[in-house]
Amino acid sequence: MNDAEPASESADGPPRRRRRDPEGHRAAIIEAARHTFAERGYARTTLREIARRAGVTHGLITRHFASKERLFLAAVPGNRDLEQVAAGDPETLPDRIAAAFVRRLETDAVNDPLIALLRSAASDERAAAHLLVAMQEHSAVVYRSVLSPGESPVPGDDLDTRVALVGAQMIGVAFSRYIARTEPLASMPPDRLTEHLTRILRQILFG
Amino acid sequence: MNDAEPASESADGPPRRRRRDPEGHRAAIIEAARHTFAERGYARTTLREIARRAGVTHGLITRHFASKERLFLAAVPGNRDLEQVAAGDPETLPDRIAAAFVRRLETDAVNDPLIALLRSAASDERAAAHLLVAMQEHSAVVYRSVLSPGESPVPGDDLDTRVALVGAQMIGVAFSRYIARTEPLASMPPDRLTEHLTRILRQILFG
Fold it and tell me: Closest by alpha carbon to B63, among B19, B4, B17, B5?
């Protein structure tokens, strides 16, 4: 890794994050990306700025993530953690999706790239719309693997539509609660929102 | 109506729209408002520009609609026609709402003020968020009148939440289909979209 920064470990025990550790670099890049995308939107964010904030070189970012688009998809928490969240009993998939979605946005909606993406898409940035599609396609693959693990995915079957409608419900809730901040959704307790969302997602996926 | 334009009727039969007809003025103002809000967004639209496009005076607009906010709410088709759409059997309310929503956006999404409103709200215009709330409150009153015509409305009951979640689903679908234009929602046949939306709205309202 010739573009990593020179190691400068202290003598008193192992440092919390080693300078030449690829995982440490990866985490620092993702953290910087999350903040930069949230602050500047997708289109105006440059890999150069993310590199500066993460304290790494531009080349190291492209080595880890190949492109701005792939870095974005890796940085969106809901997208990144989806396999982990979705794994389990197919019957309770809606519960897990709803709970993870609410928990994640409650933790840090301001720095959530999904919110930045919705704002960007609303200003007619085609790149943002393209990313929403990429996230949705990823969701469809993951949901499909949980819902019918034994069967091979059938392209064009109804599940793609259902995943898109799940996406639409989540976009609408994120928009109402975190962007427009309209009541009663804006100040509904997270548990209550999760209950409602679970009920609706169950109907969309299985109804 | 001293600020109406001077009458200039031709001699050969009654004109299609009489110059001093309040209903004709009202329709012309709403038509001009729809286009102007859609083109410029809520915040940048002025009553002066709407007056110019409608060929009436500024004073006539405020006489008919009192304020820009009230004119906007009168010009959003879904909001304006809601009483008419909602009236009927409570059991099939979701069918009527879904069908009217899809039909209306299919007719002219480009000039639909709701789309302009979502774009404005996404750019953090508080005025736009305020209007979304006003539309939602209007919906709650209308739905309540259909769902429990015999009972007096109970403020704060669960119906407000359900109406907000119906609104969120519609915002998400409008966003995906008409703003970000993500597949498969973007090119789904209107009838199919109406079916899915009816099923989901039924669950949200009654489930």
Answer: B4
Q: Give the ipTM.
A: 0.72
Disruptive mutation site among A200, A202, A204, A206 for chain B (greatest number of B CBs within 10 Å): A200
Task: State the Cα angle at A195 between B86 and A113, rounded to 5°.
Answer: 95
Residue type, position B129, single letter:
A
Q: Which two tokens stand for residue B45?
A: 């639209």
Residue of A nearest to B126 (CA): A180
Q: With an 8 Å Cβ cutoff, are B200 and A165 in contact? A: yes
Comparing CA positions, the residue from A138, A117, A135, A139 lying closest to residue A126 is A117
**Domain spans of chain A, in order of start:** 8-67, 77-206
B77-206: CATH number: 1.10.357.10
A162-189: per-residue pLDDT in tens?
A: 888 999 999 999 988 988 888 889 999 9
Distance from CA of A181 to the nearest CA of B (A): 7
Residues of chain A in contact with residue B185, where contact means CB-CB under 8 angstroms, are 161, 164-165, 168
Is the Cβ pair B184, A204 closer than 8 Å?
no
Q: Given CB atoms, is A159 within the 8 Å cutoff of chain B?
A: no
Domain A8-67: assigned CATH number: 1.10.10.60
User: What is the per-residue pLDDT across B17-41, written as a single tens digit (0 to 9) for each?
Assistant: 445 677 888 999 999 998 888 777 7
Q: Is there a contact between B132 and A185 if contact means CB atoms under 8 Å apart?
A: no
Distance CA A199, CA A98 (A): 9
Task: Report CA Rg, chain A.
Answer: 19
Summary count for chain A: helices (H), strands (E): 11, 0
Contacts of A94 in chain B (CB under 8 A): none
